[in-house]
Design goal:
Elements: H1 2-10, H2 31-58, E1 65-66, H3 71-77, E2 83-84, H4 88-98
Parallel strand pairs: 1-2
């Protein structure tokens, strides 16, 4: 969200696009669909690439869990995200506080 907001602010002539639903196609037919595809599928590629590199470096195959505001969207377009846990941070804090 932060990167796309910066894009819209710095390039004022570009149309602002809604990124909460993935586009039907990777190749956009107009400026707005191209921007939307680039943001969503570009970040999915970034996530997939980083997870692949981390797995190679670790030598293991850990479970990939997404959390945060756009986790559900990324889950639909990423090849590596296995599950979405929207309350992962809060659940972790609850577990820690219960063990103090």
């Amino acid at each position: 969200m932060i990167a796309s907001e910066a894009l819209f602010r710095k390039a004022s002539k570009l149309p602002r696009v809604e990124i909460f639903v993935p586009p039907e196609r990777v190749i956009g037919k107009d400026t707005a669909s191209g921007i939307k595809s680039g943001i969503i599928y570009g970040y999915a590629g970034l996530v997939d690439g980083m997870v692949k590199r981390m797995k190679n470096e670790m030598g293991t195959d850990p479970r990939v869990i997404a959390t945060g505001g756009l986790a559900k969207l990324m889950h639909h377009v990423s090849d590596v995200i296995e599950v979405v846990e929207p309350n992962l941070t809060l659940d972790g804090l609850r577990i820690i506080s219960n063990n103090l």
